[in-house]
Structures are given as C-alpha cells and as structure tokens.
Amino acid sequence: EEIIKLLAIDLGASSGRVMLGTYAGGKVEVEEIRRFPNGPVEADEQLYWDVQQLFHEMKQGILEAAKSRGPLQSLSVDTWGVDYGFLDAEGELLYSPHHYRDQRMEGIALALEAALPPEEQFKLTGNQSSPINTVYQLFADLQANPELTQKASLLLMMPDLFNYMFSGTAVAEQTIWSTSGLLNPDSSAPASEVLRRLELPVKLIPRLVPAGTVIGELRPGLQEELGSGPLKVIAGASHDTASAVASIPYGLGGSTGGEGSAAFISCGTWSLVGLETAEPILSAEADAYGFTNESCFGGTNRLLKNITGLWLLQETQRGWAEAGEPLSHQEAAELAEGLDRSTARIAVLDPNDPLFSTPGDMPLRIESYCIRTGQPVPQSRAEIIRTILESLAQSYASTIRELETLTGSPVSCIHMVGGGIQNKLLCQLTADATGKEIIAGPVEASAIGNVLVQLTALGAIEASEARTIVARSSAPVRYQPALSIIHSDQGGQ
Ligand code: ADP
Ligand code: LRH
C-alpha cells in the first residue's frame, strides 16, 4: 500500500506551523511537527515580516520531520493574503516585506482612489478595495521609494517568496495573487488597466501558475543541510483561505443540504464568510455589501467577505497577558460560556470597524465603540469575550443573508473550518444567529487543504477526490440552531 508523506507549512497570524501530511489507505492525516510565533516585528514604527527568523523556523521543522518521519516527497508554503517582498535582478530579497497591519497606506489611499475609485477596482479585479490589498501597499512603496522601479525585478507574494527561497524558482501562484487587487477577476492575467492607471510596472509580476504546480526541488544546499533528500517544492493553494476552503467536506449537509448552496466560514484570525461560484460576481450590489472575489483551487471563484475575526479576541488576550493576567483560548471560551444566555447580549460590535483593525488596547477600543454607538459597555472579562463572540456571530448571519440575496438561493448549511471552531460557543452562536445547521471541521483546514493540493500535484489523487478524502478522514461536529430561534425565523417568512 502506498504511503505518501509531505510537509504543509502554514503561516497563520496566530502562529506558523510545519505540519506533516500523511496519505495512506485513502485517508489524510496531519501531525504538527513544529509551531512558532508569527507576529509582526516593529522597526521605525513600521510593521514587518520576520523573514529570516521564519525561514529558520521552517528549516528546523523540515530537519526534524526528515530525521524522524522521512522520506518526505514534497513541501509547500501557504500564508495569509496580500503581503509580498521584492527580488532584485540577482534574485536577492530587497528590503524587509511589510505586514499589512502596518499603517503606511493611510496617507496614500486617497491619491490611489482618485486615480482608481473603489468601484472600478472591484469591476476590474473582482477584489473589494481595501487599504491592506497588495495594490495599495505597492502604490505606497513606489511613492515612498521611487527607485524601486529600477531596483526591483520581481514582486513575490509571501508564499511564493518562501517557495522561492526553498527552490530557487520564482512564480506567481494564482490563488495568492487573487488577493492582490492586481489581477483580472478570474485571476488569469494582470489587470492591465489597473497597472496602467496607477503606473505600476507589469514586469514585476512573475509567470502565473495554477495552484498545484510542481515548481522545482529543494535547493541542493538545503537538501544537504536538512538531510531531507530531493523534496519537490510545490506551489499549492498558497493562499491560506484557498487551502482552507479546499479542505471543506461539502456534501455532508444533512437532509436539507444541496452542495451548491452550502456556505463556509473559515474561522481564524480573520473570518472569511462566503461560498463558491462558477464565475466572479461583479454586481454593484456585491460590491456595496463588501464582498470580494478570489480564486479557489481548481479554478472556481470564491465570493466572500473578509470579516475581522478572532483577531479581536487575540488582541484582547494579548493585552491581558501583557498585563500579567493571561488567559488561554480554552479558558476564554469557557468564561464567556458561563454567562447566562438571556442577559449575555450586552452590545453588538461591527468587527470591521477600522477602530479594530490595528494592534492595540482592544478592551479600550471596544469601550469607545460602545460609547460612540450608545450601547452599554461590557465590564467583566467574560462580558468582553462574550460581546466579541456574539458580534462575530451576528456579522456572520448578516453576511449569510446577503449571500442569499446575491445568489437568489437559500444557504442550506454552513461549513465552519479553522482554529476558531475549537470555540464551541462561537459555533453554537453562529447556528443560532443564522438559523442554519453548522458542520464544523476540520480545525487544521489550511494545512489539510495544502496537503491535498500537493497530493494532486504529485499525481497521487485526483482533484475531484479531495473533499471525499477529508470526509473519510475525520468526522465533523454538528451544531443545530436553538429551537426558539428557528421559530422566530419562520415567523418572519
Ligand atoms: P490563523 O490561521 O489565522 O493563525 P487559526 O485557524 O489557527 O488562525 O485559529 C486561531 C484561533 O483559534 C485563535 O485566535 C483562537 O481564538 C482559536 N482557538 C485556538 N485554540 C482554541 C481552543 N482550544 N479553544 C477555543 N479557541 C481556540
Ligand atoms: C486569512 C487571510 C484572508 C485575507 C487576510 C489578509 O488568513 O488570508 O483571506 O487575505 O488573511
């Protein structure tokens, strides 16, 4: 029986991890080899990726896996969207890549939007305009450092950059580039009108390749250093959200579930709420609601909204830890669960309010948001956490309703994936707020999606089998909406 082992390296905002993926007997398993922090580093009041440290951590993970679990066939890196680094003509990294929570785009957004209004960005690229998008960051970089036009020869999105550092081959993988605001809506080519209007050099964009492309082998020097043998390096679904969505076991939607109408919530630092469509949805209504179009593994479209997710809770917990009163994720969830249901809804936050998007004192910002919007201020830690979770569930529910309006068909059930589904209260609140069945799992969705896409690139599985393999490999947890809420929903129809 064939056993395939490979490494999925997933760089999330709450941590980076090197995961061993094992495919055997028609099932896929992931095992954590190494987990390490992946916070932004600050220098001169700007926020950056710690590229060298991360590369070191990834190498340690490969070394460990090769020694204890080898032989390994391949590796692939996925990261969050929008961030990038530059290579010079010699193929060396130029400058440290910025982190999107850096604030250098603030000063240039108006100038960019004067040349290319948000509605046109949406029409030309399918992407919702946002100051974190690559297009805004690149525009800011070129304004601040005009010499970049000469010095930079390629722009590599972060997973492409790390895959390049491993293999020496530079490509532009479509799923990660679909977050940039620089490609056409189906991510098949650069959005030439955008580049022209903003005077961005097209030569910076490398050769586009689809998710699941073998781009080379681990550099010989690294093979020797890490004792790994000739690993293949694969451009996977290198956007973490594309990988997460590739792991969703659609088709488990229960009695009401038609596959086409199942939605997803990828629940980590961000909450990504959406569904897959055959084509990008470019209507003014989709734009006005705040949706974006990104590419999925296999070339379908992902219509989704980026909602500032458990970041709110992570930042709150970070503040408490710094004040010497740390609280684990599990303790946080349990505290909020302890509140009585009937009095637990204290205030509702809009998680996407710009107030919450940058690092800082989250409880203080929540307080000022509540005062600004005339709502009671949550006082205890339990109340603060509960307010965050209830607000996330409310914002998921309104987004699901918008999706139903846009597609003209009801959402049958919702697949929740990612680290956040370990918060059972959040899953239950989401079932209650949406009135839909929640099918939760897998937790390590990005890593599993990353593994599956590598397996297709290696020719070990067919793309069409991937979701069945996940369904076979682990059972999801189901949450039903509370009865009172179903009744009140039906009453309104
Ligand atoms: P990312 O990929 O953005 O780093 P993850 O998908 O790993 O995010 O999800 C991280 C989030 O999952 C954390 O912010 C935390 O809120 C939640 N989480 C992780 N572990 C637990 C747990 N044991 N109980 C409840 N929530 C958890
Ligand atoms: C989630 C994510 C999301 C956005 C954001 C920047 O981790 O990738 O899809 O692109 O980070």
From TrEMBL:
It comes from Paenibacillus phytohabitans. Residues 264-457 form the Carbohydrate kinase FGGY C-terminal domain. Residues 7-245 form the Carbohydrate kinase FGGY N-terminal domain. The lineage of its organism: Bacteria, Bacillati, Bacillota, Bacilli, Bacillales. This is Rhamnulokinase. Belongs to the FGGY kinase family. CDD domains: ASKHA_NBD_FGGY_RhaB-like. Keywords: ATP-binding, Disulfide bond, Kinase, Nucleotide-binding, Rhamnose metabolism, Transferase. PANTHER family: L-RHAMNULOKINASE, SUGAR KINASE. SUPFAM superfamilies: Actin-like ATPase domain.
